[in-house]
Amino acid sequence: MQLDERRKGGFDFTFVAGLQDRKLHSFGARRFLNVADHRLGILTVRVHEQSDHAGLGNHFGQQKQAVFVVGQNVAIEYRYAEGRLDRLPSLAAELIGLPAALLVAMGVSAAAAAKKATATIPIVFGAGLDLVQLGLVASFNRPGGNATGVYAFGAELNPKRLELLREVLPQPGLIAFLVGPENQATPEHLREVETAAQAVGQPMLVLHGRDEDEIEKAFATMAERQVRGLLFGPTTYFQVIVDKLVALAAR
To answer: Is the model's pTM score more than 0.85?
Structure first.
């Protein structure tokens, strides 16, 4: 998918990107800066162990006519927030200070931090929330500014997620929706879930999970209330601690 093409600062650039499970699947540029060495900055909420360095690095070398070769004429710098959204602004500032010629922001929070940190360095992002409402772009057709990206339908799929969960439950009952209250996408997802639940008469229990202590309490509440099924809200933090969540659900 061609995302955006414009002339900025004396050079043309075209970004091609795709996101799958919040991972960068494909990235290319027709012509980048006319310099021997340039840096690509990756900003993510994830932890180091969960990131696939080879996925992006190898992509450059797999093209028929590779424009960039990592380690030869392009360098990739990674910054991980380790699940802590409050670290994103300082990490974005680090990448800008290198300086990075381009920022790739993984997720809504990283994109917002990158956009706030610079109005000149090009930013590519993937997000599952209204990008115009967030102020990341001026419009979907004409993003404007220095940011462009992929909008992945997220909140709109919650009614279907709820429907599928209800179908596989061994017996009907209370369903919990665990959310990260600090995530910018949470209010929209919560509205979609609550509206869908009310339409079919499904009782819901909304719980917060901003850190491990709160998540422990949430699962204790689920056990006490005899919750039958669980939906997760849109926060990368849950992906960071996915092993812990699986262990808690299995208890």
So the answer is: no
